[in-house]
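anyone seen this seq b4? input:
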Amino acid sequence: MNAAVENLRTQVRGRVLLPGDNGFAEARAPWNRAVEQPVAAVVEVADADDAAAAVRHARAAGLTVTAQPNGHGASGNTAGVVLLRTAALDELAVDPAARTARVGAGVSWGRVQAEAGPHGLTGMAGSAPGVSVVGYTLGGGLSWFGRSHGWAADSVTAFEVVDAEGERGRVTAASDPDLFWALRGGGGDFALVTAVEFDLHPAPELYGGRVLFPGALAARAFEAYRAVTAGAPESLTTWFTRLHPPGGDPLVAVDVALLGGEAEAKELLRPLEEVGTAIADTRRLLSPAELGSITSDPTDPSPGFSRARTLTGLDGPAAAVLAEEDTAPLLLAQVRHVGGALARPSDSAAGALAEPYLVYAFGLPLSPELAAGLRERCARLWESLGERVSPRRPYSLLAPGESAADAFTPEAVARLREVKRARDPRGVFRANFPVLD
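predicted toks r here
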């Protein structure tokens, strides 16, 4: 065992787990159990000062650290790395008058929404309430409300960080414009973020839910989806999903989230009424705390395979591929409407997302054969969609084997690498998808 790793126990107050310790295997495991995450040690930091102590020790001893509250977005690129678990950094303060929130690196979106919702406010949350705010935001943060307000990173006003020297600091656009830019969507390669401050947005009314149809109505549902998105205001986000439940019949879901009321939603979503008889319809007025009920994402870790690509449009040939081709063995093949504010200029590493749609594919790699089948099916899907597929995809949807360079423009990649070399020349920090790889 490396003496520098063993000495972590003398440097921090939080629990340190080393290979061979009881609980080490579980502590190092990422959310996606299909990803192997080899690490040299796991440190459950007690607070921000403890995190700084861990970074100072890593710098002095020539170690590399990566930070995860619960392991979402892991790539497996962690051999020899010290994994910092930040769940204990659970500060949460909502200021309704100022419409702002301050949250620690261990806070999930579900907690933020529960605090902000009663004040008619929302954060830039995604579909899964268990995802950490900080990790999600460092990756840009693709929210249900992105069409209205851009990336979650665009709402950030300040970061509390530990830098590569192990010093704590506060980063704003005024205090450190380069680092502030990089942290807003460029990943965790530049500093350890212990807390983030961001603007909340008005949500006096929120309407959302899922309409579920038999798989036989996929083509009609897709045409309705195209009609809805063609004229959708920025306040409306919709997803079209073809589902293949294990052992069940194919299904089609249309998920909606509207920053508005029921009457407006019914008018905007009128094309869905012409699809046919729905199996279920959960659409209703929601509180921001109920945002996760739209898709009911899994709440427990499990193995998964995912890939994402952005699309330049949904013309007839694309519709035929997405609505009619057999997508098995994928569990779901999903089209998300993006655009709106996401397509406008953004002074962040995430930048503008010009493509108006995004395709997300997910499956269960329960055996090597199934994993190979999922990879092959995704490759054929991108091939069938042809030139409509953009090479760019959001950082937060990158998958193992992909690169940070896939998420940014060439100019942004070059600037991120400059910031990395300037702020962390010894490579103390390693993101899930490092910008220098």
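The chain has a mean pLDDT of 96. The CA atoms of residues 150 and 341 lie 5 Å apart. kinda curious what u guys think
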